[in-house]
Amino acid sequence: MGRIADNLAAVRATLPAGVGLVAVSKFHPIEALAEAYAAGQRAFGESRVQELTVKVDALPTDIRWHFIGHLQTNKVKQVVGRATLIESVDSERLLSLIDREAAARGVVQRVLMQVHVAAEETKFGFLPDELLDYFRARRFEHLQATHICGIMGMASNTDDEDRVRADFQAIADLHNQILRLCPDLRGFDTISMGMSHDYPLAIAAGSNLVRIGTAIFGQRQ
């Protein structure tokens, strides 16, 4: 076994049953992904459209591709139908464009709503109140070809574990609030949060999908 396979096995050993693993492969070469694939990994996360399209074409067709970066509206056409799950829907305008493109292609695009709770201004996402308003008003009922599967978020980039814990708790609480507002939502069951440096805290708060890159592939090249 190679280093990546060993790293994958070590990460998997720390994940409780029911927690999915996205191997964040952005900026890593196709050979690295192929090694992870050979070790049984099937879900990979990319954040740049051009890099995603190259890798989709080069690697096996049973890979589940997660788009985890900020998706510009002019790149939607290249991602819909290619990504199994777009985790980073950060505006209603983007969601509408994804829905229109998915309908035009005759596919159902699975997405997560990205929520912003972190201290940094630089992160994208809906504010919690905006997201609650969206679901309270049931605007998801206008979607034709998009399935909202849950929410995604990031904690503040800080060494303060209490703040990180509180951020993850806020994201998990938001997911539960949405389900209370709309108990008829089907398949709204994904809470994607936690990365290499903080995923144990995310899982403790309720994450059931973690996005791990460095702990698997090492520092990006």
Structure description:
With 221 residues, the protein is an alpha/beta fold. The chain has a single domain (3-216), classed as Alpha-Beta Barrel (TIM Barrel), CATH 3.20.20. It contains nine helices and eight strands. An eight-stranded parallel sheet has the order 7-6-5-4-3-2-1-8.
How many whole angstroms does the radius of gyration measure? 17 Å
Q: How large is the share of residues in beta strands?
A: 15-25%
Q: What is the CATH homology-level superfamily?
A: Alanine racemase
Q: How is the main sheet built? A: 8 strands, parallel
Helical coverage, percent range: 25-40%
Q: How many structural domains in the coordinates?
A: 1
| Global outline | globular
What would you call the structural class?
alpha/beta
By DSSP, the count of extended strands is: 8
